[in-house]
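ping. complex inputs:
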Amino acid sequence: MGTLRIDLQDGFDNDDVCIKVNGREVYHHRDVTTKLLLGLADTIETKAEDGSAVVEITVPTRKLSRTDKVDVKGDTYVGACVQRGGLRLLVSSTPFGYG
Amino acid sequence: MAGHNSAPSRCERSGPVSGRYEGESTATPVAGQERALDLRVDIDSRYANSPVLNRISGDLYQVQRIRIPGKPAQSWRVYLESWIVDDPDIKWEECHVEITGELRYWRGVHPPITVRVRIPWRTSEPVGPAAVTLSQDGGQTWGFVCARVGDWFREMNLEIDVCESVSTGFVLPRYNTHVHPDRPADIPARDLSIEECYREAGVRMAVRPDRTVIDDTAADFQSWSAVELHDAMERYFSQYQGPWPNWEMWGLLAGQYEKSGVGGVMFDAAAAYGGAGRGPDRQGFAVFRKHNWFKKLPAAAPADKDQAEALRKFLYTWVHEAGHAFNFLHSWDKNRPDALSWMNYDWKYDANHGDGAFWRAFRMRFDDEELIHLRHGDRPAVMMGGDPWASGGHAESPAAAEHLHTPPGAMAELEGRPPLELLLRSKGYFEFMEPVHIEFRLRNLLEDIPLKLDIRMGPEYGGTTVYIRRPDGRVVEYDPILCLIAETETKTLDLAADAEAGRPEGPDRVSETVFLSYGKYGFYFDAPGEYLVRAVYRGAGDVLIPSNMLRVRVGTPQSKAEDRLAQDYFSYQVGMALYLGGSPSEYLKDGMKAIRDVVKETGDKDSMLKAKLSTVLAEAVSKPFHRVEVEPAPEAAGPTAAAGPAAARPVKAKVVKVSDPNPDEALKLTKQALAAFHAEKSKDLNLMYRNLVEQRVGNWVAIGDSAEAKKELNALHRDLKACDANTNILDEIKEVHDKI
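pong. complex structure:
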């Protein structure tokens, strides 16, 4: 069992964002906005078993949705950003840093 | 073949031409208008690992001098505006270089102006000075002679403080570019510090030697927020109380940020961007030593790749955060996601180019566009405490401000030693809808001669200009409703106060309360948020004295009712009624009603909003009111048709008294206001409190109650004395008291 940390990164601007992990809603917020100083809007941490996890992110305000399988191995990091009209997901075994 | 000339050249250049030059005007189109120029020449290699950008740029200043008999002239300069030449023509000759091109100003509209710079050199002599000529279409010409200052373009100081929890080990990094194997194969080996990184970029950064250790070891303190960091900066940054904008920056090595993923933050920006929301922006930043990035930071030279990576990231974070303070956005926010720059994120670059790609290609520098901004950008957009963060970054002007008239240098500072100080002060917080009054104070700074000055400081007289930066970053010039033409009102300010010389504070200064809420373009403080106010005093002559930058905050509506009242309040009629200090005019009756509604329905009894508006209502009934009544003259006998429709009938106009003063009502209206000022006891309100009491004293005298008038003057005297009012003010109050 590790921690799945999902960072909402660039491109969010007063958006509704809903995140489900393995079908369970772990985040649902309105007015999600990227802080320009950091390139980060919000961070969500949830416990996840090692193995494959299904991460579903929807942004109804932009009619965007994306579902990805993420390999969870210990602490795992997912970055989501709105880019070129779509949702993009990055997965990393090390935390993303901001500044 | 011609014979070989072996004579040594008389013009062997000892070093680069590029760098910073400064000097004053030698030729001006208008007599007496002296200028100074900071010139930046960027046309040849001036420093290792630093690209040449083929540009020149300059900052223009107005120079002011005062000559005191028997003493050296005292001078100061006021920043005016900046320009750049993007693609100059450069002609290298044996003994000089000539650079010509057309100026592009960052702000405002200018006629075409060309520049010619001629920089000579001789063997064994320093390069320069630069002879600079600015020529405007139509013939006006400015000439300058500018000595070379150094091979950098900007100079600034960095002050570093450290939190106790991370105070062991080194504070600032030093990283050798060859210590980590993932690097560009041909990157020159060199030791980089934050100073060296900026030196290569073109900025001479001096790290101040003194450091404060801030105790952050309280058991319940875990992490910093942006607001807490700003608070720490206000407390510990030794330069914080100085004038802003300024070439001063503060960096804090702290433990951990409230969002653990953050390795560093330039916290001094608008709250909407993730900053503290307390302008002026871009004065300070923090680096978080406990961040995951720095876990393997070595105590000395890195022993392995992981330690080298941590050290490299430590250097990156210092340079990156200071870069934000120079007004850099992240690379991707400037539509350059593939930039190899200190301002990009390695993992973001790698997401497009493959794991490790950033550090294998990054040459430890800013990209060219950023270097243009840093070296040659608009001065207020680069300088700390200048334009708000994110309003530069090559936009160089606050967003959406294009349609507003923002004179060059509107929020600029003063350098040197002026003979006079213009200080703006007020309380820091105004309630929503509360009229904004600011005290303007002129003070003689000379110890040798008294100054005779025009002391009318209201913008209506044209002697001062006021600039207001609104919460959205737009800078607007306050434009009064009235333009008043009157004889100069002069006063002699005594020599600067000096306790040792037996000169008290008071006779050396004069103050006036200036109303700034409403002007020609409506309400200036109608939105909650932070405002910055600066004024420039010109007086009767051509002296130019910018004030300090005053920061005030306007609060939010305290209730739904208050929010609803704002609809009627922010109107022409209320604005005019406030501007005129209350009016019984039938044309403003809706405005006066809206003011009465606000007094009745909002705030607690001691609120300044209520107090000030009550004073306006009272003022309207304290004096008689006259109206000009116009009546058509009786229809004249005889033919009128021949005269045609254009011939208006004669009218008769006469001034009639509409209302008598009502001192009882005025006293009743301001009873609570008096209690509010008495309760507040703030030095920032001294002038307004005094104005209110003087209004009431007039009303007490009008109804024949001298005892009450004296009682209130005595209370005012006591309260102002408790608020450190100067003796001459207290004496004036006593004089009024004794005359009653």
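Chain A has a mean pLDDT of 95.
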